[in-house]
Protein: CDHR5 protein
Organism: Pachyramphus minor
Amino acid sequence: LEIPVTILNVNDNDPQFQQPNLTRFVREDTEVNAPVVAREDLSATDADLDIIYYELTTTVQGTDGYFAIRGVNNPEIYLQKALDYEKFQSTRLLLYARDRPVGSPDPTRTATATITIMITQTDTRAPWFLPCAFIHSDTSVCISSPYSGTINISEMAVEPLILRPGPIYAIDPDSTINEKIVYSIVGGNTDEVFSVDADTGNLTMNKIVTSPDSFLLQVMATQANNVRKYSVAAVEIKVINKSLYPPHFERELYNGTVVLGLAPRSFIFQAGDPSTPLMITAADEDFPDV
């Protein structure tokens, strides 16, 4: 007597990831839609020979939407949105492998793989002149104010010029790269009056100036390893007459009088002369008519 026996496959095996924990380093300038983790590194197997269905989630707040899988049956992870190292430097993804589609009434067995993504900073930003300020919450661009300073007419300054709001100084905002900055004057330097130190940014004079006309210099900060990464700042230098005398008060002591109950913004009068407002004045021999 022949008795055919059919063995029915029972769903009694969990899907298995070959590597349940993965770490990948991703460059900040990776192109959108580029693969980040290959399919063969993430495909799960099932001893029950079931079709595997995948789902990807992130566990780090603020990093949603950057990474995705190609499809419900294709676990290859790709970059879905451009990265910004300043926004986040790492994230952790969870990849679920199920042997039944989501919503299936049949019992489902699941495996989970953890993928850690580390963002590596790349040379994406031009130098920033300091001090600078961000526009609202955008940290990709830092706006600096023009530098300004003065020189005396017909006088040679031997020390680096003192500027406001501070000395000429730029940084590489890609902080982990921190490339060396080189300075140069690219405009406004009539008759080559000024020089800038390529390494320090110190501004010095090459010759005296006999005209009262101001200078508006354009100083460029360039990355030493990449001349295409540069920024330009304006430096206004005003030519003035040298001050030979300090200002001084015309008297060492001023005396005034007030009466009890005097209303705000009322004049204070000179002591001994209730009809003349008290005036405190100074003079400067550099400006005899002022």
Observations:
- The domain at 16-120 is CATH 2.60.40.60 (Immunoglobulin-like).
- The chain has a mean pLDDT of 93.
- The longest helix spans residues 39-42.
